[in-house]
């Protein structure tokens, strides 16, 4: 059940840690942490994104009460929440990374889920360089032609000089 993990800390320390991690996740898009912390951060992050989708003054104040940086709240309401407008939950994904070397704690990477639109845009961008490469290829051929012309001109200039020395 979410929200019941104590994480080996007193309430105030646990809440401060989770607030900081949620702020960092919304600011940067991903965090590498332990699996149990990631599961707690997921709960609170999804609540904050849901608040951002409401976009009311009350929800903005509730987000400001939990998230520790004002610019992250602005980013949440202006950038992040509109990306998930048609999605009803599941805004984050947790990837297991294996045990930590020092103490063997199970590590995880928690990321904000990229929207399908973003994936489609990335596919369009990946096609664009191919077209650009195709456009660049004729320029490269022209460059090869000019270097061939220059070498032919140099050999033509060297040939009469050699004939003069022989004569």
Features:
167 residues, three-stranded antiparallel beta sheet, single chain, mainly alpha
Produce a short descriptive summary.
The protein is mainly alpha-helical and 167 residues long. The protein has 5 helices and 3 strands, in the order H-E-H-H-H-E-E-H. Strands 1-3-2 form a 3-stranded antiparallel β-sheet.
Strand content: 5-15%
Distance between the termini: 100 Å
Largest sheet: 3 strands, antiparallel
The count of β-strands is 3
Low-confidence stretches: none
Instruction: Give the SSE string.
Output: HEHHHEEH
Question: How much helical structure, as a percent, in the residues?
Answer: 55-70%
The geometry reads as globular
Query: Mean of the pLDDT scores?
Result: 82
Number of helices: 5
Structural class: mainly alpha
The oligomerization state is single chain
Rg over CA atoms, rounded to whole Å, is 29 Å
Strand order of the largest sheet: 1-3-2
Protein architecture, described:
There is one protein chain. The chain has 5 helices and 3 strands. The protein is mainly α and 167 residues long. It has a 3-stranded antiparallel sheet. It is globular, with a radius of gyration of 29 Å. The model has no long low-confidence stretch (mean pLDDT 82).
Fold blueprint:
Layout: H1 11-28, E1 30-34, H2 35-54, H3 57-66, H4 70-83, E2 92-99, E3 106-112, H5 116-166
Antiparallel strand pairs: 1-3, 2-3
